[in-house]
Design a protein that fits this description.
The chain has 160 residues and is of the alpha+beta class. It has a single domain, classed as Roll (Nuclear Transport Factor 2, Chain: A). Helix content is 33%, strand content 39%. It contains four helices and six strands, in the order αααββαββββ. The protein has a six-stranded mixed β-sheet with strand order 2-1-6-5-4-3, covered by helices on one side. Strand 5 and strand 6 form a beta hairpin.
């Protein structure tokens, strides 16, 4: 091999080594995007649009609502939200508290509140906390794991 061929081959190897998979940095823009997506989820729930709310979640999402079995898949999430909407869920708020991540994976935790239909037919206010694990796929943050629970004691049969 000539010196020139060796130099070109070495340069090519250096470029491949330096241009390999680079870790994507989690930025303020990512944090802001997750907060915005969370507010889009809230808007969809308040509009009683379970289909739009389910778009926040990955197709293979794991969803862990309070006092329910773990659910898998966006369709299950949509069905769960549709049940809440039909049961009178309203006035949903979500306030992200801590959002962070590394590369294409992030977490967000915060507080929520909503109005639900009580056991006696009236309304009751619920409040609690949530935790999301999200992944950026194709430039869009989607929730892969979701868990939330109430800060209030469970409603007893015949009360609230």
């Amino acid at each position: 091999m000539t010196r020139r061929t060796v130099a070109v081959a070495a340069l090519g190897l250096m470029l491949v080594a330096c241009g390999g998979t680079q870790s994507r940095t989690f930025s303020k823009a990512d944090s802001d995007s997750i907060k915005q997506r969370t507010q889009e989820l809230v808007a969809a729930l308040n509009a009683k649009n379970a289909s739009k709310a389910a778009e926040f979640y990955a197709a293979t999402a794991t969803f862990m609502p309070p006092n329910e079995a773990t659910m898998h898949g966006r369709d299950s999430v949509q069905l769960y939200y549709q049940t809440l909407v039909e049961a009178g869920m309203a006035d949903v708020t979500m306030e992200p508290r801590d959002v962070g991540g590394e590369g294409p994976v992030a977490y967000a935790d915060g507080t929520y509140s909503m109005t639900l239909k009580g056991n006696n037919g009236g309304q009751r206010r619920d409040r609690g906390k949530y935790l999301f694990v999200l992944r950026n796929t194709g430039g869009q943050w989607r929730c892969e794991y979701s868990m939330w629970n109430s800060d209030l004691p469970p409603a007893e049969a015949g009360k609230q």
